Structure formats: structure tokens, C-alpha cells
């Protein structure tokens, strides 16, 4: 057996592949075109009305250079609105639309349920332990990320 099968990086990459495949399959079953990043962005915009794109990127630990494409796709689907910030003419304040609210209400239970499928093979205690360890290690390595999780700034 190759040593790659016991390397953290390889296993994390594989688990990400599995997670993305399960998410895509479940969204496909619903007839919904939504990616995990779009789900995270839409959820965050709903929780933080008026958030700007840079803050959104930091809040979901996504690259600032590519968050614009995510926002563009959500806006094109009429799931969010972009308006000029009242305090910064260069920034765009993001808010969820009624269509976005309805979509989140529809997919959220499915996304919550598929979490167990991502961690198939683990009992509840093992799932809890893995999530605790993943939270700990991602926090420890946050500053090494090209898209670190940042504290959310004040709304614009």
C-alpha cells in the first residue's frame, strides 16, 4: 500500500472530493444548481445583510480574487442583490432576495442531512471527535491559507 493513503493531505483531498460529489448529487436530486461555496455565501449573506464582497470572502474563507464570480452567479440567478455601499462607493452591499431565501429554506435541510453521508462509517462520537479535530487544525493553520478565515468587519 502506498504511503499516500495515510497522508493527511491526500485523505483531506479525497474527503473534499467525496463531500463535493455528495453535495452535487443532492442538489441535482432537487433540480438545483448550487455549489458548496455558493451555499456558504448565500447563507452568510442572509445572516449578514449588507455585507460587502471582501468581508464575505473572509467570512467564508474564500479567495477575494474569485469571490466576485460567486457573487456574479448568485446575482444572475436572482438570489442576491448588489447595491452601492452607503459608506464606501467602491464596495457593494449584498442582500438576499426572496428567491434566495426560498432556495435556502429548501436546500438547508438537505445540506444538514448530507453531513452524515460525508462522514459515513463514523459513529456519532467519532463524528464529533473528527469535527473537533478538524476545527482545531484548521484554526491552527488559518494564517497559512491563501484565503484565511477572518473576523467579519462591520457592515457597510
Automatic annotation (TrEMBL):
Looking at the record, the residues that make up the HTH marR-type domain are: 8-139
Leader peptide range in chain numbering: none
- MF annotations from Gene Ontology: DNA binding; DNA-binding transcription factor activity
| Superkingdom of origin | Bacteria
**Which Pfam families would you find in this protein's record?**
MarR (PF01047)
* Keywords, in A-Z order: DNA-binding, Transcription, Transcription regulation
- Give the protein's recorded name: MarR family transcriptional regulator
- Give the originating organism: Marimonas arenosa
Amino acid at each position: 500500500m502506498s504511503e499516500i493513503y495515510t497522508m493527511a493531505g491526500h485523505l483531506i483531498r479525497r474527503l473534499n472530493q467525496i463531500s463535493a460529489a455528495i453535495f452535487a448529487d443532492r442538489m441535482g436530486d432537487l433540480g438545483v444548481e448550487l455549489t458548496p461555496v455558493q451555499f456558504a455565501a448565500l447563507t452568510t449573506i442572509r445572516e449578514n445583510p449588507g455585507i460587502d464582497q471582501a468581508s464575505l470572502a473572509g467570512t467564508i474563507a474564500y479567495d477575494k480574487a474569485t469571490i466576485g464570480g460567486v457573487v456574479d452567479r448568485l446575482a444572475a440567478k436572482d438570489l442576491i442583490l448588489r447595491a452601492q455601499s452607503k459608506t464606501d462607493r467602491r464596495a457593494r452591499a449584498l442582500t438576499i432576495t426572496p428567491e434566495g431565501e426560498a432556495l435556502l429554506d429548501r436546500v438547508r435541510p438537505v445540506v444538514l442531512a448530507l453531513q452524515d453521508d460525508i462522514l459515513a462509517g463514523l459513529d456519532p462520537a467519532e463524528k464529533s471527535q473528527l469535527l473537533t479535530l478538524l476545527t482545531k487544525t484548521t484554526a491552527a493553520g488559518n494564517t497559512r491559507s491563501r484565503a484565511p478565515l477572518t473576523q467579519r468587519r462591520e457592515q457597510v
